[in-house]
């Protein structure tokens, strides 16, 4: 229901939508496991919000979307470099969350996901950290 309200609001706003609306829509789509639409909403937020890097919840959500596509869809990647670039984006998003908010409520989960991604990339030293 909330997603439908956001969609209607965006359509009626005729391009005059606050960036935070796209961030919230991305969160809702992520909760519904609609990863393509979550990524689209997050990308709109990213393009409209100049200081997106200060929003830990946005970076966390974006990191989860990247993690989903790269941790569970490695076989779908066209080339190994596609997989590695996606992993780097997920790693970067998660590291930025920890940098701007070390006490983020999901910090332990972020550390776990980072450890898994570093292990897959055979960066065992970083994985242990």
UniProtKB/TrEMBL annotation:
Keyword Cell inner membrane among UniProt keywords: no
PROSITE patterns: TPR
Location(s), subcellular: Nucleus
Main location: nucleus
Top-level taxon: Eukaryota
Alphabetized UniProt keyword annotations: Nucleus, TPR repeat
InterPro entries assigned to the protein according to its UniProt record, in alphabetical order: Corepressor-Demethylase, TPR-like_helical_dom_sf, TPR_rpt
TPR repeats mapped onto the chain: 19-52
SUPFAM superfamilies with a match to the protein in the record: TPR-like
Reaction catalysis annotation: N(6),N(6),N(6)-trimethyl-L-lysyl(27)-[histone H3] + 2 2-oxoglutarate + 2 O2 = N(6)-methyl-L-lysyl(27)-[histone H3] + 2 formaldehyde + 2 succinate + 2 CO2
EC number of the protein: 1.14.11.68
Record-linked PANTHER family: LYSINE-SPECIFIC DEMETHYLASE, LYSINE-SPECIFIC DEMETHYLASE 6A
Family: Belongs to the UTX family.
Protein name: [histone H3]-trimethyl-L-lysine(27) demethylase
